[in-house]
Amino acid sequence: LGDIAKFKRLYSDEIDRMRQPDSSVEEKKVGRARAVHLSQLTSEFILRRTAKVNQQYLPAKVDHLVICKLTPLQTRLYDLICKRAQTVVFQESGRKGRETSTLAAITHLK
Question: How far apart are alpha carbons 89 and 82 in whole angstroms?
Fold first, then answer.
């Protein structure tokens, strides 16, 4: 793959340029070609295993459920995030907007 400067020039910059919304047809063509070439080069070194294959080598999964009470601060934050999410969901008119808002709220609650 060469040094970092060569890699950036041949692959990274071209692929990034292809992904820009205002990229030309030629930039997209070159970027796709470079992405395919890079994928072919790295496929020789990157081993991808499915979960089924990995199960042979890993111990059985064990889940532990731990329930604990929220602190008063956590309760207030939880309520605040839920109220904000509910407001945003009701304000969004499109289905995709509601899904995005809901997922964002769930992420904040983690």
Answer: 10
Predicted confidence (pLDDT) at residue 68 exceeds the cutoff of 80: yes
Q: What are phi and psi of 70, to 5 degrees?
A: -70, 145
Q: How many CB atoms lie within 10 A of CB 14?
A: 19
- DSSP one-letter string for 45-86: T-----HHHHHTTSPPP-------PPPHHHHHHHHHHHHHHH
Specify whether the CB–CB gap between 7 and 1 falls below 8 A: yes
Rounded to whole angstroms, the Cα distance separating 34 from 11 reads: 6
For residue 34, CA distances in Å to 5, 8, 14, 37, 63 come to 15, 11, 7, 5, 43
- The amino acid occupying position 22 is D
pTM of the model: 0.44
pLDDT value, residue 92: 59
Lookup result for tokens 């997922």:
103
Query: Residue 31, class by beta-carbon neighbours within 10 Å (0-12 exposed, 13-18 middle, 19+ buried)?
Result: buried
